[in-house]
Amino acid sequence: MIPLLCALLSGGLFAAALPPYDWEWIAWFALAPLLVAAHGRRPLEAAGLGVVAGVTCGALHAGWNQDTSRLMWAYIPFLWLTMLFVVTATASAAARKRWEGMRWVVLVACLGVSGEWLTTLLPIPIHLAISQYKQITLIQIASLTGIWGVSLLLWLTNAAIADAVLRRSGRTKPLAIAAASIAAAMAFGWWTLRAEKAGPSLRVAAIQDFSGDETGDLAPPPPPNVEIDREKMTRAAAAQGAKLIVWSEECLGSGFNPDNPRDGTTALARQTGAFLAVGYSDAHRPKPYNCAGLVSPEGKLLGAHHKVHLYLGESESVTVGGRPTSYASPLGRIGMEVCFDSCYTNITRAVAASGAQLIAMPNYDPPTPRGVLHDLHVAFLPFRAVENHVPFVRSDSNGHSQVVDAYGRMIGLSPLYAPDILVRNVAMGDGGGTPFTRWGDWLAYLCLAGSAAFLIRSFSRKNSASQQIKS
Q1: Cα–Cα distance measured from residue 247 to residue 362, given in angstroms and rounded to the nearest whole number
Q2: Cα–Cα distances in Å, from 176 out to 154, 155, 464?
Q3: Lowest-pLDDT range of 162-166, 213-217, 307-311
Q4: What is the CA radius of gyration of the chain?
Q5: Which domains does the chain have, with CATH numbers?
Q6: pLDDT at position 246
Q7: Distance separating alpha carbons of residues 326 and 332, to the nearest angstrom
Q8: The predicted structure's pLDDT at residue 458
Q9: What is the mean pLDDT of the chain?
Q10: What distance in Å separates the CA atoms of residue 398 and residue 412, rounded to the nearest whole number?
Q11: Residues 6+ apart with CB under 8 A from 463
Q12: Where is this protein primarily located (predicted)?
């Protein structure tokens, strides 16, 4: 009974650490009860405890809704989180039979980060680190390690606490090393922010033209006296001085024709004198691209990004895009991404490596109970910004449009399921990227190598033991 309660506790604690609850400090010990409960358990029992923790976390976030399709969208991230908990609990229990102390703690941390990397092969990756997206000083380490560095610290600390509990000692080497590692990361972040050099400021806007047509019973529609008109909202943003205005993903459908001088979007750019980053579908055959286009005040299409990471069944009707890049403009080099691209490290790295000083991102997160997908997506962008020192402007028609600066600070965040014109000033990046831009996911690969070495060693030991018994 006690192991089951520990698994329930871990699920509940980690749920509280994630947005929108944002009790991020809980994440530093949330998984320790699960690791303790898995100790001494058979693989199937340890896996079951991981399932309990993951399901509990998902239930506390997504709850219940009669619309099964919406419920499925809401639970998908927690399905992968459950798989991550299952793998880590099972492997850590097996490893504890041979090792304890620092060796076991490091192995659990490597296994956790390896599991997170494996979720990048699934629809929507999951990271413990997204619980820390508001901890601006801490997350600066991502400019060296990527999001993996923060996740490694979380796994390391949770494992060190679990090890201390299992050894019934509050003074252990793993606890001391975990505390020192956190302190070093915080010191690096403090130094990075102190040495910050702000680039030229740009006034930007995200148009959140929420209509309520797709939310059903999840949210009430806007009041009848609130007029939702993308063109009028864009003119209002331009009147407030916005020089770059971002629209949502595929908001124009297939109706955008940049080659036609009478196209309404290019005409609007000329009339407002603003750059527009718009979402649309092109005429590519046999399947169109999901595009983000940058339209200049002269009504010219300066460049188009084709969405690379397609979400679930989207690949049935959309062609996968090629290598992303940025485009020169009088504002600076502007890069673009579309929605799900920002959940992976590789797209932003490629855009930043091409010299991007700002990334405009048309976005569409499907309406889900309690806005689960919107809340989780919000937590990814500060990491992408810090990893490459490039600011983001994200527009989503359903809510939580964002402006994030190059150091991960949330300059602006629109409400969920409500219309909004988000206008902010944000400092441009220098276009030089960071060590992570150049080195990539090196820390995740190092953790994968360490986990693989453990598995190979365990397998070889089992074979040796079997041969000795037979002889």
Answers
A1: 6
A2: 14, 15, 36
A3: 213-217
A4: 24
A5: 2-195+442-470 (no CATH), 201-437 (3.60.110.10)
A6: 98
A7: 10
A8: 66
A9: 92
A10: 16
A11: none
A12: membrane
